[in-house]
Amino acid sequence: MRRPFHALLIATAIVGTACAESSEPDRAGDAPVGGGPAGAGPIEIAHFPLNDAGVPSGADAVFDPAVSQDGGGSLRVDSVRGGRLRLYELQEMGDVQGAVVYTGFLRSRALDGQAMLELRCRPAEGEAVFVRGAATAVAGDSDWTPQEIRFSRPGLCRDPVSIELGVLIQGGGTVWIDDLRLWSVPLD
Fold it and tell me: In the Cβ-directed half-sphere of 134, how many Cα atoms lie within 13 Å?
């Protein structure tokens, strides 16, 4: 049985709640490739399209209606030296049975380092664990790049107290973030 979850938006100088469903069709790169039993596929846990002017903005991130992967705007970060941007925290997730997969799109301009998705899990027992998408990081001047990171060791994140979605930016430049999703994918 799945327990309800709450999405809490956390960013520097930003506090608000958000959880959105989209009637938009899935785009290439959105649905992760899953394993598991025949007929079992990815289950979307949460979708944050970042596509309306109601997205909170603060000192470190602003809504940018002119730049978007999906046509509805995006979140823009103008970084001087980089840092970790905490975006969403999903609480009361219940027991995680398969891989947790975090997908989205990143774009960069004049980024002198890298930017990548970051997924943190705070289990009921033990230390917080995280995974970063270094393999698909954006750097320099890049177009929209699909991102997918997979936390496929459920034993380390049993019955999570929270799962945090973020972006790690290393260096100065501009990064845009769009169409974030969290999935549950059965393991083989």
Answer: 4
